[in-house]
Structures are given as C-alpha cells and as structure tokens.
Amino acid sequence: MLLARLLNRYLPFLHQLLEGIVLPGSNNSPYGHHNQVQVAVKRPGFEGYTDLARMSSSRVGHIDQSSAKQTPPGKPTSNYSVLFGVVLSGETKTRSDAGNLYLAPGSYQKLAKAFQAFQGKVPWHPNITEHYLGEEDPKMEAVRASPGEAILMHHQTVHGVGPNHSNTDRVNVYFRITASGRPDGLKTSYPKAMQEPLLETPLLQTLAGAE
After folding, report:
1. Are 77 and 137 within 8 A, CB to CB?
2. Cα–Cα distance measured from residue 201 to residue 19, given in angstroms and rounded to the nearest whole number
3. Under DSSP, is residue 208 helix (H, G, I), strand (E, B) or coil?
4. Could you give the dihedral angle defined by the CA atoms of residues 126, 74, 106 and 179, in that order, rounded to the nearest 10 degrees?
5. Which residues of 71-85 are buried (b: 16+ CB within 10 A; e: fewer)?
6. Domains of the chain by range and CATH?
7. How high is the mean pLDDT of the chain?
C-alpha cells in the first residue's frame, strides 16, 4: 500500500490518459504479474540480462508477460495498457550503464502492424521481436531519468535492463496500469489494443490528430 501511494500524484493524469484505470493491487486481474506493482532494484555490479554492448539490439528485449502464460509458446498474449515507472534512486540520468531501462522507440507500432495479421488472440513468443519483426527489429536506447522523474510506455514497447557499473543502487517502482473500459471477456487479453496502440489512450489520439 505504501508503494501504491507513489502513484497518487499521477492518478488524475492516468485517469485522463486512459479514461479510467484499474488500480494496481485492487484485484488479481487482468494482469497479476508482480502483483501489478514491482520494485526493481539493480545493485552495483549487476551485469544485466545481457552485456551493455548488446543492449542496443531489441532482440535481447521483451514485452511483459505473466509467467503462467510464457510456456508453451503460442499461448494468447496477455496485455495491460501502459507501464508507469517512478525512479527512486540511481545515476541513470548521467550515464547509460547504471542499471538503465532500455527501450526500442517505435517498437510498439511495429509490433502492432505485425499483430494485425491475426483475427483473434495474438500468440505469445519469448523471442517476440525476432519472431514478429525479423530483420526489421528496431534499436534500443537507454532511458536517462533522475530520481523523482516518471517513465510511461505502452505495454508492447520492447524493453530490457542493462548492467549497473555505477556505485549507486538503481531503484525503480513500476506499476502495470490497465484501462478500466475494456470490453467484458477481454480484460486479460485485448488483441484490438495490441493492433491499435492508441485505442486505449484517446487523449493521445486527439493530440496526434491535432498535429
């Protein structure tokens, strides 16, 4: 509950962005991975899920999927709406090897185009970028953020974590946020939102249209 309080100041924005949200921890669905709230600590010496030299490749990244649905490959992909992170400590503002979050800009759009080939549920694959995008996989970049700053990204943005070669713990708290307006029967897996990335963020649709 104390961790959830970090979200309070951002609730008006998130409600406006998604036209209503399911509060993390209020139930076990539609996405129970990490109980919807995750404390991500990367201590000095953490070598990452892959070495820094390879972090630019989105093939070492992933999109979040509950552990129960990761095997076998081909299960319907479960999806929340957006990942919202709050940076609590670390040197990730000034360097890219301090346990930084890495993400592939535009990867959510590229995956959406690939997902449009499916009439129903989108099959999950652990090597999702390579499986769906092949040689068109985008590059990943380090997110530079200071303690107190927030990070917001679409569920299917390919991401990963690099090594922490700094002398400071990198601590982020992540909230997996789901729009409250999903149709019945599609709370856990909403393929249309995977195929149309702005579907659950009408505010962004309006802003994009204005440009």
Report:
1. no
2. 7
3. helix
4. -110
5. eeeebebbbbbbbbb
6. 4-206 (2.60.120)
7. 90
